[in-house]
Design goal:
With 369 residues, the chain is an alpha+beta fold. The chain has 14 helices and 8 strands. It has helices at residues 3-8, 11-28, 30-33, 150-186, 188-202, 206-215, 223-253, 257-264, 269-277, 282-305, 317-321, 327-332, 338-362, 364-368; strands at residues 54-57, 60-65, 68-73, 80-84, 90-103, 106-110, 115-120, 123-132. Strands 1-2-5-8 form a 4-stranded antiparallel sheet. A two-stranded antiparallel sheet has the order 3-4. A two-stranded antiparallel sheet has the order 6-7. The longest helix has 37 residues, at 150-186.
Amino acid sequence: MNWWQRLKKNPLARFGAILLLIFYISVFAADFVAPYDPYDAQANGSLLPPTQIYWNDEAGFGPHVYPTTQGKTDLETGDRKLIVDRQKPAWLRLFVTGAPYQMFKFSLPLPPTFQEVEIFGGIPGNLHLFGTSGDAKFNLLGTDEQGRDQFTRLLHGGRISLSIGLLGIAITFPLGMIVGGISGYFGGWTDSIIMRLVEVLMTIPSLYLLVALAAVLPPGLSSSEKFILIVLITSFIAWAGLARVIRGQVLSIKEREFVQAAKAMGGDSFYIIIRHVLPQTASYIIISATLAVPSFIVAESVLSLIGLGIQQPDPSWGNMLSLATNASILVLQPWLVWPPALLIILTVLAFNLLGDGLRDALDPRSIRR
């Protein structure tokens, strides 16, 4: 039985993998899945609760909604009554034509000017997974204070929150593997110098460093520029611990027969490290990578939560969760806080379940048992 079959037999790991697959497909196809543009505001539609769906009333049978807006504020009680126009029913439909978009459009701030450069122009389209056939808006999770659809912004914000972990490990793990491999393979003064540097980096409190570095960033940075800097900062912190573990594994691997044989045949040291030594750490790297992604997601969420990460109007789960600092929002508009909080919790949980499943599947001791 290979590791893939053992992984499939683990129900918790399978649940985590399926959940992550759903999340990643949904956020990267957000233009199609979401019914509206994440920056479009609805007239008189601020802080609307999730739209009520009607199934059987005077308009007929089937899922439909009515145009809903916020009325004037009662100066005595502070309440705002919902105004529902029952003269204009709108039926819920799948594959509805709506706001135009560029599917998979991708741009990055590139050096030396760090101006945003379009990498891929995207695929034009205007078809959405679901929507309404009339003028009424269907706000699955309500609207925010600007009248923007909360469900749409959650999907688009997930692009940042979910991709930051993948980009983070793409920078952190090669760096940690190479530095740790060199340190463990050569030993001596090379090992001593590298490990002292690693120990210094490991003593730096990661969250405080993130806050300190983010606080001194120029105020005019765009969200994409801040995104790149957050990835670089978190990657700068995270590679040291990995390098130390890899170094310990390489110390034992370099004494094995196949490594000694490669040396006797005159193999180049760096070739031996890359070709023979580091691949032996693959099982640990795979497990560690899945368990490291949540730390990048949490770091971005914390920075955005305290106002140092991705800022409005660009959505991310962290800055959407920042409304939780307002106690009245938690009580009066809970639909603004619980969805991003729940998505962060489920994503972190799914990665941890998948990582635990990979550890059990790839662990030689569990294989022997």
